[in-house]
């Protein structure tokens, strides 16, 4: 996975100027980045649970994206935000949500 992360300033730019789409489990913000690669950010609020739970959700989202990144053309900064209730979901449900949002990106 050749994706790199970005800093807080870039997160704010994406939130303010990027486009967003959502489903029941996740929100996705995205913006073109003028690079030949995609960059991924994942946000999981403390409302979701303790650090173990939040990190589990992040890992599931990251792996779902990794397996489906071929659906997205290169050149985007993408942020996934986990919604409340996401902590109780299994991998296949989260992967389905990620796929659903990535299809909207096209």
Structural description of this entry:
This protein has one domain: Ribosomal Protein S5, domain 2 (2-Layer Sandwich). The radius of gyration is 13 Å and the shape is globular. The protein has helices at 8-17, 51-68, 91-105; strands at residues 19-22, 26-32, 39-43, 76-82. The mean pLDDT is 91. Strands 1-2-4-3 form a 4-stranded mixed sheet, with helices on both faces. The chain is an alpha+beta fold and 106 residues long.
What are the salient characteristics of this protein?
single chain, 106 residues, alpha+beta, Ribosomal Protein S5, domain 2, 4-stranded mixed sheet, 4 strands
The level 1 CATH classification is Alpha Beta
Report the sheet-strand fraction: 15-25%
- In the predicted model, the low-confidence regions spanning at least 5 consecutive residues are none
Give the H and E element order: HEEEHEH
Which SSEs are present, and which pair or pack?
Layout lengths: L7 H10 L1 E4 L3 E7 L6 E5 L7 H18 L7 E7 L8 H15 L1
Parallel strand pairs: 3-4
Antiparallel strand pairs: 1-2, 2-4
In brief:
The protein is α+β, with helices and mostly antiparallel strands. 41% of the residues lie in helices and 22% in strands. Helix 2 (51-68) packs across helix 3.
